[in-house]
Amino acid sequence: MLGEKYFKLDMSYWGRSQRLVIQILCIWALAAYGLPALVLETNKMHYLGFPLGYYNCAQVIPMFFGFLLLVFNGVQEGIEADQTDGKPAPEAASSSALNAMLAKVYVAYTGGFVFFVLFLGFLEAVGVPDQAIGILFVIFTLGMYAAIGIASRTSKSDDFYVAGRNVPPIFNGMATAADWMSGASFVGMAGTLYALGYDGLAYIIGWTGGYVLVSTVIAPYLRRFGSFTVPEFIASRYQGTVQLPGGKVVELSGVSRFLATIVLLSCSFTYLTAQVYSTGVIVSRFIGIQFEVAVFSGLIGVLFCSLLGGMRAVTYTQVAQYVILIIAYTVPAICMSTTQDDGFNKNNPVEFLAYGGTLQAITLREKEMVLLGLASKVTPYLEPKWRRVDFFALTFCLMVGTASLPHVLMRYFTTPSVRSARRSVTWSLGFILVLYMTAPAYAAFAKLEVYTNVIGTPLSVLPKWIFTYGKIGLTTVCGKAVTSVNEAIEACAQASSGDYLLKLKDLKISKDAMVIATPEIAGLPYTIAGLVSAGGLAASLSTADGLLLAISNALSHDIYFRLIDNKASIQKRLMISRVLLVVIALISAGTAASRPADILSMVAWAFSLAASGNFPALCLGIWWRRANAQGAIAGQICGWGLTLAYLLGTRYGGWALWGGISNVAAAVFGLPVGFAANIIVSLLTPPPPDEVLAMVDSLRDFKVTGEDLTAEELEDIKEKEEALARTQVPQVSNTAEATPVATAEASI
């Protein structure tokens, strides 16, 4: 009897789903932390020339995360099929037709882009100036994005906020990948790996592993709820009232909505500034204009898409941008890969399998530079320099931050169904892996090229790219950004250019310049360099689009419509959203022009802010029925507040690092505090209202909300919700009674 009572498995839909998620997360954690913990031991073994520990972190772990999501989707869909007597949930016919139509459009688009690149290669061969080719690349890509924005313009709220909720999973996966692979990934990732070596792999593990959390813990439930924004879900989940000493009764959903919007603004604006900064780097290099002017010029393509078509235009623009950025990123790597003949690979075009010999050559060259007096000491590229706790802390913050970023989560509001949302996450990670598995190869090829053909050369034969990027402050020789051989001689305090050999300490290359400079470093045709610039623009602009929408939608929908004027018409709300888009874009451009930090650091801050401010409220709101509004508010204030204080204090206030933990992993302090505050305060205060508990149950019940709805049904539901929302009472009342806000939302 005792065994039957305590060990009988819960075979309900929710019970089986819970066990599956726990099993997947245990395997996920073992892969994410177990293999890196053994890197020193496994680096002694080799595979195709790769130290096995390095290869595990660079290639095996990210691929395993993708495999894990495939397993999760298959088992979860099996659980759902059992709820419908073995019949899979139906897909709307309109979704299949849209999928086929989009496939034809984007195949034709890809072919046209390839033809355009080949045409520019022909122009280079017949003597067209390099700068003209760079300008053509920039104009073509910005023009294409603007054209898609014009073609996708809309005045319907469902299209503007969530793209009509009918984006097929594969195309939503491409759009999410483009939204995700920002300037940090495209411009900054390979540069960070170039500079940090093994330690930089924390970014790859963190940013790919986070999608396991997105798929298993957060995204399907947000899609089932059916909101427009993340703050809207938090406000509906965390309802309740509290009576102030003066007798006023405050509706807590408004407070939680406001705090969620503040968190969204802090992480999204930080992230947005990084994208605008990377846009300025690329435009200034390839058009030849001043960086500050280039920053504002890059906003044109962003605003066209966001202003005219909202999420609908941004989604289909991001699919087009993914095509460009992934071609731009992989083509140079493949070109460099096919030139390798290192004893392990010869003319191998599969770049993520072809750089094992390159890594060994880097190790040998490091020792050689010390023997030749070109370096006093070289930090080994393949060995960890950080403490393990630093590596794991950053990985953890990036993973949880991925599952908390509003502009990423809102992408899964656009799919036709819950099942489509899960599949979309898997597609997203698959498309992201194409770039992330290429980045280590990109960095290794560039590292060896610099070590072999630049370090140890006389100043008189320094390559031209050093002076080109010196003009925009991305390279320095002997501490100065030089633009000519004479300036290099002066910087190094030498009498002539022929007697002094460039040493390792003399050359500094910005991490943000590495990807766009590598084609020139490797001596590839300028058309390839222009292609990379187009890809970098696509990466930065696609993410900027999503971030601008997340910010403006939160301000117009969650602050203005929900808290200020709940009788505002759709047209008025869309107008306010578009005005806010322009204002926010201009502010972010002004901030980026001041060059606040390198791109990857700014992005890592955004992840920590999102993780500490959003994840406890989202995770507990779905997985713990007892979590209430008071606990959520306490968790948001304590967790996010501590993270922000640590970040600002260590960056600008002269604070010492706590335990040596860098501020890019600030959430390692704020996140547990946020969880603890949420749980403790929830237990010390009354439980959530019955209607909130019913809403939580509906999120978990396949029979209640598991059916696919057509776009027309969703539009009808949303119109009824908005009509009901206009009857809500103000958020602060002088009476002792208050009507819960968003009862319509809670019933979804």
TrEMBL record:
<feature type="transmembrane region" description="Helical">
    <location>
        <begin position="528"/>
        <end position="555"/>
    </location>
</feature>
<feature type="transmembrane region" description="Helical">
    <location>
        <begin position="106"/>
        <end position="126"/>
    </location>
</feature>
<feature type="transmembrane region" description="Helical">
    <location>
        <begin position="655"/>
        <end position="681"/>
    </location>
</feature>
<keyword id="KW-0472">Membrane</keyword>
<dbReference type="InterPro" id="IPR019886">
    <property type="entry name" value="Na_symporter_ssu"/>
</dbReference>
<feature type="transmembrane region" description="Helical">
    <location>
        <begin position="171"/>
        <end position="195"/>
    </location>
</feature>
<feature type="transmembrane region" description="Helical">
    <location>
        <begin position="258"/>
        <end position="277"/>
    </location>
</feature>
<feature type="transmembrane region" description="Helical">
    <location>
        <begin position="289"/>
        <end position="310"/>
    </location>
</feature>
<dbReference type="InterPro" id="IPR050277">
    <property type="entry name" value="Sodium:Solute_Symporter"/>
</dbReference>
<keyword id="KW-0812">Transmembrane</keyword>
<dbReference type="GO" id="GO:0022857">
    <property type="term" value="F:transmembrane transporter activity"/>
</dbReference>
<feature type="transmembrane region" description="Helical">
    <location>
        <begin position="599"/>
        <end position="624"/>
    </location>
</feature>
<feature type="transmembrane region" description="Helical">
    <location>
        <begin position="575"/>
        <end position="593"/>
    </location>
</feature>
<feature type="compositionally biased region" description="Low complexity">
    <location>
        <begin position="735"/>
        <end position="748"/>
    </location>
</feature>
<feature type="transmembrane region" description="Helical">
    <location>
        <begin position="132"/>
        <end position="151"/>
    </location>
</feature>
<feature type="transmembrane region" description="Helical">
    <location>
        <begin position="20"/>
        <end position="40"/>
    </location>
</feature>
<comment type="similarity">
    <text>Belongs to the sodium:solute symporter (SSF) (TC 2.A.21) family.</text>
</comment>
<feature type="transmembrane region" description="Helical">
    <location>
        <begin position="631"/>
        <end position="649"/>
    </location>
</feature>
<feature type="transmembrane region" description="Helical">
    <location>
        <begin position="201"/>
        <end position="222"/>
    </location>
</feature>
<dbReference type="InterPro" id="IPR001734">
    <property type="entry name" value="Na/solute_symporter"/>
</dbReference>
<dbReference type="GO" id="GO:0005886">
    <property type="term" value="C:plasma membrane"/>
</dbReference>
<protein>
    <recommendedName>
        <fullName>Sodium symporter small subunit domain-containing protein</fullName>
    </recommendedName>
</protein>
<feature type="transmembrane region" description="Helical">
    <location>
        <begin position="391"/>
        <end position="413"/>
    </location>
</feature>
<dbReference type="Pfam" id="PF13937">
    <property type="entry name" value="DUF4212"/>
</dbReference>
<dbReference type="InterPro" id="IPR038377">
    <property type="entry name" value="Na/Glc_symporter_sf"/>
</dbReference>
<feature type="domain" description="Sodium symporter small subunit">
    <location>
        <begin position="12"/>
        <end position="79"/>
    </location>
</feature>
<feature type="transmembrane region" description="Helical">
    <location>
        <begin position="425"/>
        <end position="445"/>
    </location>
</feature>
<keyword id="KW-1133">Transmembrane helix</keyword>
<dbReference type="InterPro" id="IPR019899">
    <property type="entry name" value="Na/solute_symporter_VC_2705"/>
</dbReference>
<feature type="region of interest" description="Disordered">
    <location>
        <begin position="725"/>
        <end position="748"/>
    </location>
</feature>
<dbReference type="Pfam" id="PF00474">
    <property type="entry name" value="SSF"/>
</dbReference>
<feature type="transmembrane region" description="Helical">
    <location>
        <begin position="52"/>
        <end position="72"/>
    </location>
</feature>
<feature type="transmembrane region" description="Helical">
    <location>
        <begin position="322"/>
        <end position="339"/>
    </location>
</feature>
<keyword id="KW-0813">Transport</keyword>
